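Re: [ENG-882] Designed sequences occasionally contain unexpected residues at chain ends

Forwarding the minimal case from QA. Structure tokens:
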């Protein structure tokens, strides 16, 4: 599952960013996007960015919940937004993937706690 978006730039853009804003207006993800002249296509994997906790371990980001999101493209002083709506996968009649990701996150936390205890010993 992903969102594909296309955009066109007439000239190379300075201070260019492509962000996804959540229902509360906060930045959920920053999409790596080219700022060169031309037509571009980007893909967002529906995962929120994970905050850096300073550890060397890389955690997989959580999939965002269904709802309305904004894609905001900013180039210098100019900004445009596009509303998108994310729905549950029709093949999955429940939101069991949320429970799975919660369990996966808890398990990851246990592994990290165990690793921290092992390093102290």
């Amino acid at each position: 599952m992903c969102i594909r978006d296309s955009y066109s730039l007439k000239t190379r853009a300075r201070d260019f960013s492509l962000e996804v804003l959540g229902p509360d207006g906060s930045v959920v993800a920053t999409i790596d996007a080219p700022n060169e002249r031309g037509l571009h296509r980007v893909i967002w994997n529906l995962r929120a960015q994970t905050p850096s906790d300073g550890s060397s371990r890389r955690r997989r980001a959580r999939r965002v919940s269904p709802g309305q999101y904004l894609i905001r493209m900013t180039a210098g002083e100019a900004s445009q937004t596009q509303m998108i709506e994310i729905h549950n996968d029709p093949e999955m009649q429940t939101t069991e993937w949320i429970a799975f990701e919660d369990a996966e996150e808890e398990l990851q936390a246990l592994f990290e706690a165990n690793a921290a205890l092992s390093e102290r010993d």
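QA comment: On inspection the terminal residues look reasonable. The CA atoms of residues 56 and 97 lie 26 Å apart. Proposing we downgrade this to a documentation issue.
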